[in-house]
Amino acid sequence: MKPNPKSQKAHTDLVLPVAPSHGRLRPLGLDEVRITGGFWGRRREVNATATLDHCRDWVERVGWTANFRSPVADRRGREFADSDVYKLLEAMTWAGADLGTITEAIASAQEPDGYLNTAFGRPGQQPRYSDLEWGHELYCYGHLIQAGVAQLRTRGEGELAKIAQRAADHVCETFGPGGIESVCGHPEIETALVELARATGEQRYLDQAALFVDRRGQGTLADGEFGRAYHQDDIPVRQATVLRGHAVRALYLAAGAVDVAVETHDDELLAAVVRQWETTVARRTYLTGGMGSHHRDESFGDDFVLPPDRAYSETCAGVASVMLSWRLLLATGEPRFADLAERTLFNVVATSPSEDGRSFFYANTLHRRRRGTAPAPDAVSPRAESSLRAPWFAVSCCPTNVARTLALLPAYLASVDDHGIQLHQYADAEIAVDGIALRVRTDYPSGGTVTVRIARSPDHPWTLSLRVPAWTQGATAWLVDTDGTRRTAPPGTATLTRVFRPGDEIRLELPVAPRWIAPDPRVDAVRGTLAVQRGPLVYCAESVDLPEGREVDAVRVDPTAEPVDGPDDTVVVPGELAEPHDRPWPFPPLDRSEAAAAEERGIMVVPYNSWANRGPSTMRVWLPMTHP
Ligand code: FUB
Ligand code: ZN
């Protein structure tokens, strides 16, 4: 494992969540890029000041940290409860927070051979590795290792990192050649082991990750009620053409496969994941970037099965999708991966937490027909069942996943290569790398102007690359040079190469005017509807913006007129309210003269990520047309 040659610093010296040893682009560390304000700055502030404490209180309160200290009989939570403690520790580590005494408790639960899980292996519990399909032992190690890597990368060493490495050694011993020839029912260990290999230089972790990726799809796990695809154990990774089965599992596995492919120069494996990504995005992804349309098994549906009112779109699947897109972006340099990451960050990851950072959506529906009820602030909600954001869940994977993603978010903003710096996501930020310092100022996504000011620059030419989002298709984006000259910037990447001087300013002007989005006609569930998008933000109608007592299912929109900006990031769409009425069942024959009484009016729509912040409401993203 060699350092990435594109960096002047060794990659092991950087505070990097993902550190490929090579690839088209090199990521920047959290010590090289800072978010200083704006949309993400506010959310990161809430994450640091409220969400981390909130999650810490809850893992204590529901007994998931005590599991590491307690006798078996008292163990609380589902079989994967340990993982949420680890994800929280990862988030706290990236955020520079004090880990307190949790690490000591975890250390005390680790067996001398490195085994660590509070649900298995002790007297009175099921034996170790007796339920690979559902036991989540390797999944939990994965999150432990990611927390340990965060500690290595932020502090150079630490007890959590040691615990993680002991566990990883144990995994290699137990599941390596000659050991248990199987995989975990929930992928996650793969990406974690590759990162640990990158952080420590230990080849055996990478070899073990590669082994896990290759074993997947060989039918080593028992077939269950959801079929082998649920665990991605139906088809080998390099033969699969689309992501299928449980969405979070599929996405974590794909991320791990990219990591393995990059480190082993396995272009065939990388190409297989790119192919799966393409088909999945084209056919199995909600407008929001959300993935997963089955509640029953939290899985992808078949192609074009994207019902808005049954959208599962688990927050963790959004997090995992961003992880995958980021890895593919670094490997290939292609902006389409940053496009999906942006869509998913703004419309799934940012939708999950409430404004105060103390309650969360687990599933992210695109249509709520009944006003939900807010869960009590001290109640645990069943998985994905709460109708509004909930403080905690019996299966509480999402809040801690949001926390760690927001904590490491600056790392997703930019990268470098031999030619210069690439900006992939737009936020108020300061970037300092390889003798270059930039200040990025923007009110994105409210506004579309991104100003990049050069604060420091070497006296040789280099290239500044700016992603021009795919959503600008059909409108005009402009790149304004340091001397004020303007040129159009088609979707993709806009570049400027020169000797920059301190004080130089470059501007990207993105056309964020609201517009209609028409669905793929094969998505039957939304035929005859339109959605509204403004910049990267998907919008929705919410009943709180309608006259008293009206619900969103009365909204019809007029496709012959255009949506326009309203106050405070709202959009007003031309339309009408037509109260739906029950028809006698079985439904009557078509009556061409039938016309529902409708009241014409502008309908206010709001960013989807802000819905349900004003109390219980009905909501929909896809709006039926007056004249389909
Ligand atoms: O199984 C662990 C986590 O719980 C999954 O990633 C989520 O989908 C939820 O089922
Ligand atoms: Zn989740």
Helical stretch tally: 12
Portion of residues in beta strands equals 15-25%
Compute the gyration radius: what is it? 24 Å
Largest sheet: 10 strands, antiparallel
| Global structural class | alpha+beta
* Low-pLDDT regions: 1-8
Question: What is the overall silhouette?
Answer: globular
Helix content class = 25-40%
Q: Can you give the mean pLDDT?
A: 95
Beginning-to-end CA distance, first to last residue: 58 Å
Query: Ligands bound here?
Result: beta-L-arabinofuranose, zinc ion
Give the tally of β-strands. 24
Q: Any key phrases for this structure?
A:
disordered N terminus, binds beta-L-arabinofuranose, 628 residues, single chain, 24 strands, 12 helices, alpha+beta, binds zinc ion, Immunoglobulin-like, ten-stranded antiparallel sheet, globular
Q: What's the arrangement of secondary structure elements?
A:
Elements (H helix, E strand, L loop, with lengths): L25 E2 L5 E3 L2 H24 L19 H14 L7 H8 L27 H19 L3 H17 L13 H12 L2 H13 L31 H18 L2 H17 L31 H18 L2 H15 L17 E2 L11 E2 L10 E2 L3 H12 L5 E3 L3 E4 L5 E5 L2 E7 L6 E8 L5 E7 L9 E3 L5 E3 L3 E7 L6 E5 L5 E3 L11 E6 L2 E6 L12 E3 L6 E2 L5 E7 L21 E9 L11 E2 L2 E2 L4
Parallel strand pairs: 4-5, 7-11
Antiparallel strand pairs: 1-6, 2-8, 3-23, 6-7, 8-9, 9-10, 10-15, 11-14, 12-13, 12-15, 16-17, 17-18, 17-24, 18-22, 18-23, 19-21, 20-21, 21-22
Bound molecules: beta-L-arabinofuranose and zinc ion.
